What does this fold into?
Amino acid sequence: MILIKDGRLIDPSQGLDGEYDILIREGRVEKIGPRGSIGVEGCEVIEAEGLWVIPGMIDMHCHLREPGYEYKETIRTGTLAGLAGGFTALVAMANTDPVNDDASVTRYILEKAEKEGMCRVCPVGALTRGMKGENLSDIGELREAGVVALSDDGRPVARSEIMRRGLEYAKAFDLPIISHCEDPDLSKGGVMNEGRVSTLLGLKGIPSISEVIMIARDIALAGFTGGRLHIAHVSTREGVQLIREAKAKGIEVTAEVTPHHLTLTEEALKDFDTNAKVNPPLRTEEDREALIEGLKDGTIDVIATDHAPHSPVEKEVEMDLAAFGMVGLETALPLMLRLVEEGVLEPLSLFEKVTVNPARILGIEGGSLRQGSRADAVLIDPGKEWVVDPSLFHSRGRNTPFKGWKMKGKVVKTILEGKVVYG
Amino acid sequence: MRKDLLGIKDLSSREIEVLLETAERFKEVSEREIKKVPTLRGKTIINLFYEPSTRTRTSFEIAAKRMSADTINISASSSSVVKGETLLDTARNLEAMNPDAVVIRHPFPGAPHMIAKEIKASVINGGDGAHEHPSQALSDLLTVKEKKGRIEGLLIVIAGDIAHSRVARSNILAFKKMGAVVRVVGPPTLIPYGIEDMGVEVSYDLGEAIKDADVIMMLRIQLERQKGGFFPSLREYSALYGLNLEKLKSARRDVVILHPGPINRGIEIAPEVADGPYSLILNQVTNGLAVRMAIFYHLLGGKE
It folds into this structure.
């Protein structure tokens, strides 16, 4: 038995924020009680005085790259980075090689995760075969093999007909469709947000409407089909507004935002830092504020990293040639905590975006320290100051624009099914 | 003195003035019988060109030679680019041969900035994508200043494909820094989003836009833009945004016309206009040489 004592428990699933001790037995939460109320005899004690204790975070959008791109990241290194960042479950996108559009690939990922993974890995199946946007994958078989959602993330589904059928078909399996909303025609060739900075730099822009049009389309399709739609990494003010309106109309739509879109704007590309090249691109300050507003009023349900590791070969090149994406697992927590520091969100409403909400949307266990739950927990020192040094990352990817940033808040310990696996 | 010349954006108006004054002095060298000064003897300058260019490359080369530097030209077709070498690796390899300056022309914005961080040699931006072309803007400043006696207070109209033009960006920055008023004109599809934030006026009507102009700068229209859906046909583009004698009638009598070249005769500029008395197109070329000598002088001449 393990007793985590004297810490501040923040568990949105139970609406708890206060001094509670947590007793863990056989990988499950045995009991929660006010500070000092649980006896220590027979327990391994983890002293959490001055620390925050939260349910293990769930990252519902990351790229673990395996199989196929092991030079960028492996399930081993990605899950280790996850633990270091406070995540105990990672939702792995399907754009691997081969694409996870077949039960055999799903099984491979899960077996690999079982053998080499440091935390839970929940695979996303490709919505369409080969992510080509033409034919639906064998969704039933993927579900059977263990995928938690469907997505062609990275390759937006251009054809409305296919998106419609996907939303309809997935209803039979109660799987959400995670949509990377981008009109490939409108964003073709673009490398950053189309706006003041792209104009100044002479770089080809990706207009905000490229995202907005697809969010509008997918919401319309979700309303029409009754399918479950989850909008990945929303980045635009108008996109947030569309989601807000759709929710008000009762359409089944949820949405996520990344820590980098909450923190940075297009200005980050001014000195041609290819690490700030992401898709969707970093937008304007106005968009950033709208994203924060969307988080506050519940329009945006989830914070997810879109952790996208790349090798230097893909980033130490001209902006036009550089790959899209940045790593996020090991910087997400302190970037999120800035929202608490700035008084934007209370800890309870911040952490629901990475615990109970993603668990609910995906229909997976976790994200809660309620009695009887999986004992996945993270101990955080909220005041710990540190400087981002990518060479110390557990991830194979070093591609972050936050190099050298002073951060506040760090993971002290990560506990997976009652075992301390990090710290 | 600075190590690199990457863009007009980085220059102060004072630095621009100094470069122009130096260029004025260097013009004389090209008028001598023996067109050579020993200023850069023993210096090595590499022209690294990833895009075809006649004018700019030749201009940099002649400028270097008239200052007694050794020059080497590398063009993308003959370099390791085709073998798949990255730009940084190419730069590191060139650096290993200890050149004093690398002039780079590249189709992608930021390429010169990337290698400038990597190598000790001076890096001169000879045009990076649609970003900047500082030596062109400096020669345009010099050309206008020679003719008009000043820059401050003039109205400069830049016409055509603003969106894809490095010449437009560098000239907007340059003329604004020197106190001119800048107006851009072209079809709305070729006026990039947020250009007003660079402090320019925007117009879609060439005839209207040039009425009170002191300087009209025509930009080259790349013929393939039509395929990108930026305008319906070259015929219509030429009719609406080509500068011909008819449209020029509404302009001031002392207006001067610039074009960075190479010109599409009969498309963005009518032959009678390109060859007319108010055309400074060839002066730009002559001044371009002097400006490039001044750039070399300031980046390399001061170092001992």
User: Anything to note?
Assistant: The first helix of chain B runs from residue 13 to 27. Chain B has a mean pLDDT of 94. Strands of chain B lie at 44-49, 70-75, 101-106, 122-128, 155-159, 181-185, 201-203, 215-218, 256-258.
